[in-house]
Protein: DUF3302 domain-containing protein
Amino acid sequence: MFLDYFALGLLIFVALVLFYGIIVIHDIPYEMAKERDHPHQDAIHVAGWVSLFTLHTIWPFLWIWATLWRSERGWGFHKLEEEQHDLHHRLERLVDQVSVLEKEITRIKGKQNSNVVQGEGK
Structure:
């Protein structure tokens, strides 16, 4: 008789732990979004509850969505834009240097050709 009640109590305990465990796990992206001051934290929270009905199939996407935002750098694309801007300016400088070098080569070749022509005339 005691073992029957003990088994029933253990069964109820395990069911409650699993129930609350699933709720805690599904709330991880929302907690991350709250910590990071994410601009879409309410949407992430609602989507987390929706993920319960989809058997957590969208949960990994919520986790990715929550981790993309950081308050100090936003979505992180500003740095990429700055790097592209810097690369563009470096490329422009290199193109200018190449054109200067091409002119210098043309000038040197012209000088050589004029020396060769003068040397043949003597």
In short: Residues 1 and 7 are 10 Å apart (CA to CA).
